[in-house]
Amino acid sequence: MEKYHQASATLLLQCFPTVLFCFLAAGIAKADAATKLFVFGDSYADTGNWGRSASSWKEPYGITFPGKPAGRFSDGRIFTDYMASFLGIESPIPYTTAMATAQDSRSRHLQYGMNFAYGGTGVFDTFIPAPNMSVQINLFEKTIEEQKVYTKQDLLNSSFALLSIAGNDYLTYANKKGNPQELPGLTQRIIAQLSENLNLIHGLGVSKVAITTLPPIGCLPVVAAANSYRDCNETWNSAAKYHNQQLHQAVESLNNRTSRSNVFGILDTFSALMAEFKKSNGSGSGDNPLKPCCIGVSSDHSCGDVDEKGGNGGAKKYVVCNNPSLSMFWDMLHPAQNGWQAVYQTLKPSLHEMMI
Ligand SMILES: *[C@@H]1O[C@H](CO)[C@@H](O)[C@H](O)[C@H]1NC(C)=O
Ligand SMILES: *[C@@H]1O[C@H](CO)[C@@H](O)[C@H](O)[C@H]1NC(C)=O
Ligand SMILES: *[C@@H]1O[C@H](CO)[C@@H](O)[C@H](O)[C@H]1NC(C)=O
Ligand SMILES: *[C@@H]1O[C@H](CO)[C@@H](O)[C@H](O)[C@H]1NC(C)=O
Ligand SMILES: *[C@@H]1O[C@H](CO)[C@@H](O)[C@H](O)[C@H]1NC(C)=O
Known about the structure:
Elements: H1 2-14, H2 19-33, E1 36-41, H3 79-87, E2 93-94, H4 95-100, H5 103-110, E3 113-115, H6 133-145, H7 152-157, E4 159-164, H8 168-175, H9 183-203, E5 208-212, H10 221-224, H11 234-256, E6 264-267, H12 269-280, E7 294-296, E8 306-307, E9 315-316, E10 318-320, H13 337-355
Parallel strand pairs: 1-3, 1-4, 2-3, 4-5, 5-6
Antiparallel strand pairs: 7-10, 8-9
Helix pairs in contact: 1-2, 3-13, 9-11, 12-13
Residues 124-125, 132, 134-135, 193 line the site of one 2-acetamido-2-deoxy-beta-D-glucopyranose.
């Protein structure tokens, strides 16, 4: 991976006198050698699979990047984008965009892999009607075995999968007023299914497969709002800790059973976010790290809501902070670009370690 970075940098430097020719040459080199990134999971990784009715396609989502709503559940870049930049490639095309793109112009986009993640989904079905992770993996399998978009050989050389599970399975459980005593059982079912998913993806030829830990769900603004965003809820955070502990064991056991070393890896977003909260908490700036940038004007409104009766595009039912680049969270559930960038910086050493 690192070699690939250096090669393309050298190519660009040598290319100055004959820019046009070199762009062509670089394009061809890339098509052969580009690492491919395949992404599965939820809104923490989705870069535009939802249709235009989703909040991710409404103002003010996307104001930082790309400058308008474009399907990300944030003001700007999310972890998928940082992961792609780590691999030296463009952010992979969302599956639904790829399917809607004409065949002849598709291949340029497909060379960097594909993003199958849908906001609101989980390992199991959630309260949001969208493809669960198993269905997403099925779609990926079809691109190899039926549509022949990718060959196993392509993948075995240089490919990376990112799985994001940020907690929709748990949110669904909470919405159904599930009994807290039964939570460990749910976690065990989730982890067993995740193990199977990780194995399936590697079995399809992907050489490195990384999964994020559950974030500190007790610190999400939607939970922390109950105490004015001052503090995390420890009940929820310990559920996340238990999940992550089980996940570590499952991934270790998968690696033990795989002949090649270091195939499966964990990206510890839980610890990265906690470290960031600690850093900005009481830093004197007066900024509370758990308070999101974009907030509904009342508890029945969320970021992006407009009053349809207001006419003329509707009156905004939300307020946006002055400087999103100071916020950890964008809305009640999702990190801001600033938060994702901080997480990425913290996780970079783990990513380098995975590449060995
Ligand atoms: C995922 O969704 C499919 C289609 O709705 C369903 O058949 C399958 O049981 C679900 N998988 C899991 C693990 O819940
Ligand atoms: C895969 O890697 C091998 C050796 O590392 C190389 O010879 C081959 O050309 C590569 N194939 C593709 C499709 O990139
Ligand atoms: C944390 O969340 C649980 C479950 O929703 C709730 O019962 C508890 O009161 C919350 N704790 C605090 C300190 O708000
Ligand atoms: C993995 O293998 C190591 C070394 O053989 C062993 O100590 C460890 O208990 C194994 N872990 C699991 C979860 O199987
Ligand atoms: C912020 O600091 C206060 C006081 O030390 C502490 O009670 C609280 O748990 C901290 N919040 C976070 C999110 O770390």
